[in-house]
C-alpha cells in the first residue's frame, strides 16, 4: 500500500508537504497541491484512518446502544442518528443490548476499546442502573435518550411524555368523552409513567373518575396491547375512549377489537402515541401524539458533538415537544 513517502517521491516534494495537502492542515500552492493529489491518485493512496485517529485523538466514530424491539419507533430514531452522523462526517457503530445489563456492559467495553469518540444510549429498560465504567473514561461523552433519573454524568434527550399524555386525554375530553380508559406502558419506565401521569392530570382537571377497571398496564408491544384490551374487556363495559400509550399497543387493541366484532370509532374511540410511520395506514387511520423521532436522533448526535467540542460545559437536558395528529380513530360525542 502506498505511503506519503511514496507520494512525496513521485510528486517531487517533501513528506510534510504531502501531509499538509492531504490533511489540509496548512496552505500549499494550487500547483503543488494538484501535483500531490495527482501522485496520490496514480498510486491509489488511501489515508489511514487509524494513523489519523492516533494523531488527532479522534476516530470520527460514535457508538449507539439500544434494546431491540418490534416497535419501528426505534428504527425511525436510529435513522435520524445515522443520517446526522453521515452529514457530520462521522461513522456509527450500533450495538443491541437485548435488555440485558451484562450485555450492555460488554458492548460498552467493546466500543471503548474501538476508541469511539462518544456514545448514545437508548436502552430505557435498564434505566436507573449505575454504569461504573463511564467513571473510568471521563473524556468519552455520553448522551442518554428517554431514560428517567440517571446515576452517571450524561446529557439527556427526551420527549415531554407528561405533556403528551395530557394532550391525548385532553383531546378525548374535548371531543365529549367522559369515560376514558388507559393502557399504559411498563410503569417502572419513566416515559410510561409520565404518559400515565399526563392522562391522570387531564382527567382530574376535568373532574372525571379514574375507573381502575379501565386502566391496564402493558409492555409497549403489539401483543401487549392485544392482551391488555382483552383484560379490560373481561372486566365489564368498555369506556367510550381509550388512550393507548404507544401506537404498537394501539395496533394490538384494534386487532383484538376486530376479533370481537367491535368497530372503531363507532363502538369506542382510541388515541395512540409516537406517530410511527404505519399509524396512518391502520384501519381506521390512528389519531395519535407525534414524537419527533428523527429530530430525537439528530438532537442526540448534535448534543454529543457539542460536548466533544467543549467538554467543560454543563450537562444539558434537551426536551422535544409532542404534537397532536388527528386522523379517524376518535369520534366526537
TrEMBL record:
Keywords: DNA-binding, Repressor, Transcription, Transcription regulation. SMART domains: HTH_LACI. Coiled coil: none annotated. Residues 2-56 form the HTH lacI-type domain. It comes from the Bacteria. Signal peptide: none annotated. Gene3D superfamilies: 3.40.50.2300, lambda repressor-like DNA-binding domains. PANTHER family: LACI-RELATED TRANSCRIPTIONAL REPRESSOR, RIBOSE OPERON REPRESSOR. This is Ribose operon repressor.
Amino acid at each position: 500500500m502506498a505511503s506519503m513517502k511514496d507520494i512525496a517521491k513521485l510528486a517531487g516534494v517533501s513528506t510534510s508537504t504531502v501531509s499538509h495537502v492531504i490533511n489540509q492542515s496548512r496552505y500549499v500552492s494550487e500547483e503543488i497541491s494538484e501535483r500531490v493529489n495527482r501522485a496520490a491518485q496514480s498510486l491509489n493512496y488511501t489515508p489511514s484512518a487509524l494513523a489519523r485517529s492516533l494523531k488527532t485523538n479522534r476516530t470520527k466514530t460514535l457508538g449507539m446502544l439500544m434494546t431491540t424491539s418490534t416497535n419501528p419507533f426505534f428504527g425511525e430514531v436510529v435513522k435520524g442518528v445515522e443520517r446526522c452522523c453521515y452529514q457530520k462526517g462521522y461513522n456509527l457503530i450500533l450495538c443491541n443490548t437485548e435488555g440485558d445489563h451484562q450485555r450492555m456492559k460488554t458492548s460498552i467495553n467493546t466500543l471503548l476499546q474501538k476508541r469511539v469518540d462518544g456514545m448514545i444510549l437508548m436502552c430505557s429498560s435498564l434505566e436507573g442502573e449505575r454504569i461504573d465504567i463511564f467513571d473510568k473514561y471521563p473524556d468519552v461523552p455520553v448522551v442518554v435518550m428517554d431514560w428517567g433519573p440517571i446515576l452517571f454524568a450524561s446529557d439527556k434527550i427526551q420527549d415531554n411524555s407528561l405533556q403528551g399524555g395530557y394532550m391525548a386525554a385532553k383531546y378525548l375530553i374535548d371531543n365529549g368523552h367522559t369515560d376514558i380508559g388507559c393502557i399504559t406502558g411498563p410503569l417502572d419506565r419513566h416515559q410510561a409513567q409520565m404518559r400515565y401521569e399526563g392522562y391522570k392530570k387531564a382527567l382530574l382537571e376535568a373532574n372525571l373518575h379514574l375507573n381502575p377497571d379501565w386502566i391496564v398496564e402493558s409492555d409497549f408491544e403489539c401483543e401487549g396491547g392485544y392482551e391488555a384490551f382483552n383484560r379490560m374487556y373481561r372486566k365489564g363495559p368498555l369506556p367510550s375512549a381509550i388512550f393507548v400509550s404507544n401506537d404498537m399497543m394501539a395496533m394490538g387493541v384494534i386487532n383484538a377489537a376486530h376479533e370481537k366484532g367491535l368497530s372503531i370509532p363507532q363502538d369506542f374511540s382510541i388515541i395512540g402515541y409516537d406517530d410511527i410511520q404505519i399509524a396512518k395506514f391502520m384501519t381506521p387511520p390512528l389519531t395519535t401524539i407525534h414524537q419527533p423521532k428523527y429530530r430525537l436522533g439528530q438532537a442526540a448526535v448534535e448534543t454529543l458533538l457539542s460536548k466533544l467540542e467543549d467538554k467543560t460545559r454543563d450537562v444539558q437536558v434537551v426536551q422535544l415537544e409532542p404534537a397532536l395528529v388527528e386522523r379517524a380513530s376518535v369520534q366526537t360525542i
